[in-house]
Amino acid sequence: MERIGFLSFGHWGPGQGSRTRTAGEALLQGIELAVAAEELGVDGAFFRVHHFARQQASPFPLLSAIAARTRRIEIGTGVIDMRYENPLYTAEEAAATDLISGGRLQLGISRGSPEPARNGAAAFGHVPDAGETDADMARRHTELFRKAVSGAGVAEADPRYAGGAVGLLPVQPQSPGLAERIWWGAGSRKTAVWAAEMGMNLMSSTLLTEDTGVPFHELQAEQIQLFRDAWSAAGHNHVPRVSVSRSVLPIVDAEDSRYFAGSALRDSRDQVGIIDGLTARFGKSYVGEPDQLAEQLAADSAVQAADTLLLTVPNQLGVEFNAKLLGNVARYIAPALGWTVPL
Predict the structure, then answer these.
(1) Which of 32, 117, 132, 243 is the most buried (most CB within 10 A)?
(2) For residues 323 and 40, is the Cβ–Cβ distance under 8 A?
(3) What are 42-66's pLDDT values in tens digits?
(4) What is the per-residue pLDDT across 138-158, written as a single tens digit (0 to 9) for each?
(5) CA distances (Å), 327 to each of 41, 80, 231, 258, 334, in order?
(6) pTM
(7) DSSP states of 64-130 as a string?
């Protein structure tokens, strides 16, 4: 385990016990948590993106603000739903954010998950072409986005206003190296292989939209191995990265126990359900004493196969609590996985 980071879903609302009651608080607390995480030695600050919900929806202003307040920590998404995105505008925003950060952006993108709006992408102006599915449209958007961040020309020059230039113009700005820091959020073994063939890093969550009857971590480890095999076969000239997400909730004091002791048994096993019409396997949460969690995570084959572990945080409990949670993981659990505090 080379890196650990946090993954915030950016929830906000007036629910009982919420310390993140407004969108403004969610954004500002996201910045402060990233600053605190960097001070603790944590390697990454990642944010989930959802539309038409009380969650983070426009990641680039948030990530840019974090970039301006930090110096070392990676910043990223997990993931942006490409059905909703204008590929060229997203390429401009991503490059600008990466330049502000000094090359620390790790951008997770994907076909996305079910959203509250029935035809949300259409409300944003994006409708599949004839014969396309939503997934096809997301991949088409992704192809153009990746072409743009790689510096390829994407729009015909007008010599009258382009200094006499002819041919295709690239979007500006460009941020060198960003093209190799694009991750695909793969929900199955098949999509992981596709991501490898396309040359994108693998971001695997606590959910797979398939079930073979084996424990979640074993199925995810198989997904990771298939990704690595496909990457090698494709002959890409750089080393890919792989992340997995886990809910890790160490109980070290009375406050932790009050919040999480009740879920220690309820969420300590995989679950199987239906999502988007597909059978899906959901990974368990890790809740308990730190030494117990260290042993369990060391036995998690997918955690061992990945180079990056993203810790999902209960962001509505506020910055102070989540900084304490991250500190406890960094201090008591992560070293047992081979992670060391960056110098």
Answers:
(1) 243
(2) yes
(3) 999 999 999 999 999 999 999 999 9
(4) 999 999 999 999 999 999 999
(5) 9, 27, 34, 19, 10
(6) 0.94
(7) HHHHHH-SS-EEEEEEEEGGG--HHHHHHHHHHHHHHHTS-EEEEEES----SSTTHHHHTT--PPT
